């Protein structure tokens, strides 16, 4: 038995007016490709395989910024990219906050990230320091 893993969701391009998309628990990784969905405002990618490996999460966030320009609600809970106790016991609130600054730096239109409202202070901090907040593990 052979399995073909497809990370592209190009078939969604026929749903150009799609506003909400829930892709939880689908083994999706950083190579996820969405077609341009200009009306999509809510994207749930909880419990997939998205991580901060070798700059690939930056590439995914850049892709989301381009493919879903109206995105306001994003959830990445349960992924390695989202550093919290659900994924890794060694992570703490500071790690999670750095992750939030980095994601908000890339996706500045977000109103909610994960289950938490984006604050004015977070938005300001993301503008100033977000590019430097990528959470990485030393080798």
TrEMBL record:
Stored InterPro entries: LRMDA, LRR_dom_sf
Pfam families the UniProt entry points to: LRR_9
Q: Name one GO biological process term.
A: melanocyte differentiation
Q: What is this protein called?
A: LRMDA protein
Can you name the source organism? Psilopogon haemacephalus
